[in-house]
Records
---
Amino acid sequence: MTRTHTTLISLFLGLVVVLGVLAAIRTTALATRPKAVDTASITARQQRLNRAEAQLRGALTRRPPALPTALRASPAAATRVTYVRPAPIVVPSASFKEHGDQEDEGEEGFDD
């Protein structure tokens, strides 16, 4: 690498470092600024939350409505379902051999 290339690369890296530091300083400066808060909007939201809380507490104390008659049926009245397995399906394969075919293979069987 020539001396000019080295100088240009180091200047470029220095510029990048300076810009990175400026960006970090700017970001932290934005984070530390306090936001302007309107107390009227906070109190309005607080009042809405209080009303919603009161409605929820009132709903908790009230009794729920009665269930429809279809849902009140006792579990004993429900029909019982019994699963019956189907008979197994047996498909003979091509390698299935009869008992008499063993002699054709040349195997000698020993009789007891």
---
Amino acid sequence: MKKRLILLTRAACLLTSGTAAAGPDGAEHDASSFWISPITDEIFARIQGKSFKDDCTLPREDLRYLHLLHMDLNGETHEGEMIVNYHIAEDVLDIFRKLYDAKYPIEKIRLVDEYDADDEASMEDNNSSSFNFRFISHTTNVSKHGRGLAVDINTLYNPYTKVVDGERIVEPVTGEPYLDREADFPYKIDHDDLCFKLFTEHGFEWGGDWEDRKDYQHFEIPTDLINEWYPSNG
């Protein structure tokens, strides 16, 4: 049986505005701190020519802006921003709300546009993000990040790695010390990690389970489901 996303009602994700509740850090936060928005003109101005590149084939209407809260290792609460595909917006918002409630540490959640859509710079800064339009190398197929259907978490400590022609590639390059997944260090994602459990419960696949390469920061929607949503994959 194919995996399917847990479909949440919008009411379950968009919390009632105007009410306040104590967050896990003990401070009061407006319940509307977790919300979803279409890509307004103001938001689009921030991403146009950066993550939303001039050759972007994904309609702007297919994207959603998420506003959320996250907690760092010191227990401090921060506001976060992320752009994802509308198909997964409610699921991703629910995941981040549960991560925040559990005091799960995430250092930064900023739009990749703050790094001029430079993935390496974003990853080196341990930034968590999703949408950044690009084609898969040497193809006309849009990547999963290019559709906003993949999410990267705590990227410096959960690098991508692959051996090509006998040479090991690590992205970000500063993530090499964290390739030893038996070592103990902060922000590490593994099978016992709450982040892994929540994303996979919502139908995502984890790059740490891949055989030919490892992408420990990466959670993505299965290809068969994306092909249903975007049959042309163009």
---
Amino acid sequence: MARLKLPKKLLNKKIGIDSSVLIYLLNNDPKKSKKIAEILSLSKQITASTILHLEIATGFYKKNQLPLVDVLDELPEICENFRYMKVDLSVSSIAAYLRSKYTFLKTPDSIHLATAILVKADFFLTSDKQLVKIREIPVETI
């Protein structure tokens, strides 16, 4: 398989991810899944809030896509550079600050961003173009 030409700034980095990123990947989106897979495979570390699991698993349960729920559960074992991070008081405090500063932010997005900030991710990967307004962490959109 030919590699995509990705900007070097996206390679070998610590990244935080939004739920939309994994949804595109797990649903094998024809326009975005290859680029996402390449970025994630070349990342040093991928961190996601446990809220991401809740958001995505809910949709899979509704559609009775139980094997995809299993994939979500097993991601840290399947992908050695992937980890879930629990929402604790530190994440909550950063998320609250972000929501107070950026009134367009919803709670789940503020938690995803706070998680990435807390682990000192190099950037946050999302499909939500509105999140590029966030100044506390670089945001890359797909």
